[in-house]
């Protein structure tokens, strides 16, 4: 008997036949797809070149068939641990700046992860976003090649980060989520898995390139950002975000220092020191039962933190793969982050 979760074929929508067909396709795939041990102890499945856990793979099947985008939708996409929590706060505060005062802001009482949905953890066709006001904000970690065609015509903000820093942040994060009954993933094993591309939504390089190449082809649809530039010039990036999302700052707002106030409210240190981000649990969508403790989302945030962990040999291995995979793409990372 299969040890992997399967869909119930009990009809859950009026399109019973289509729903059952999707369930059958998933149940067949999950038995035959290549698998590897995941960082949390659960299997990862290699689906069209990317590694997804079974829960996320299920969600992708239904996302492909049931999610209905709107032309005004804006999506935040990234590899896990690239600074998504921070950028969520910046995007939400920028787009909704007319709704809140800075002394009584939503983010003072709620974690950034709650600002807009992570589509990867939603349960389709049950979830209904039709009541959301336009422009709707959504987040995803799916590579562009695994998105339904209806989404790729919408606007995307993509955030990437130097791969060695992603590795270290992901390693810390996964060890915090790992069962207490399992030993932590060693750094040696983490480096090996990362270099082989075996991580949630990985390989890292193919994920980044899927959006980078699309951003070159559709610059008006994809705002490609690097974590390092957000860190160094947050006010410049916030202005870019506002313009890209169709709500540029007015001269009056600039005069009133609204940009600076957003940056200060959403700074890493401010967010990390808020009581709401030190306690409580964030649940993602309808299929995430356990949730993640809020304190795990904001760990360090510094550029070059990998230098505190990786040996010279580890650095050379990752840099070599990065050079080879990105060669000829035009995408490079900040020299100060890779030195």
Summarize this structure as a short list of keywords or feature phrases.
alpha/beta, three-stranded antiparallel β-sheet, Rossmann fold, 13 helices, four-stranded parallel β-sheet, 339 residues, single chain
Describe the 3D structure.
The protein is an alpha/beta fold. It has one domain (68-338): Rossmann fold (3-Layer(aba) Sandwich). Helix content is 40%, strand content 11%. The protein is built from 13 helices and nine strands. It has helices spanning 16-32, 54-66, 84-95, 163-177, 187-195, 204-217, 227-232, 234-244, 251-255, 258-265, 268-273, 312-326, 335-338, and strands at 35-37, 43-47, 50-53, 74-78, 137-140, 155-160, 222-226, 281-282, 292-293. The strands form three sheets. It has a four-stranded parallel sheet with strand order 5-4-6-7, with helices on both faces. Strands 1-2-3 form a three-stranded antiparallel sheet. β4, α3 (84-95) and β5 form a beta-alpha-beta unit. The longest helix is centred in the first third of the chain and has 17 residues, at 16-32. The chain is globular and about 60 Å long.
CATH superfamily: P-loop containing nucleotide triphosphate hydrolases
Task: Give the total of domains.
Answer: 1
Integer-rounded radius of gyration: 20 Å
Q: Strand order of the main beta sheet, please?
A: 5-4-6-7
Q: How many helical elements?
A: 13
Task: Please give the share of residues in helix.
Answer: 25-40%
- SS content category: alpha/beta
List the helices and strands and how they pair.
Layout lengths: L15 H17 L2 E3 L5 E5 L2 E4 H13 L7 E5 L5 H12 L41 E4 L14 E6 L2 H15 L9 H9 L8 H14 L4 E5 H6 L1 H11 L6 H5 L2 H8 L2 H6 L7 E2 L9 E2 L18 H15 L8 H4 L1
Parallel strand pairs: 4-5, 4-6, 6-7
Antiparallel strand pairs: 1-2, 2-3, 8-9
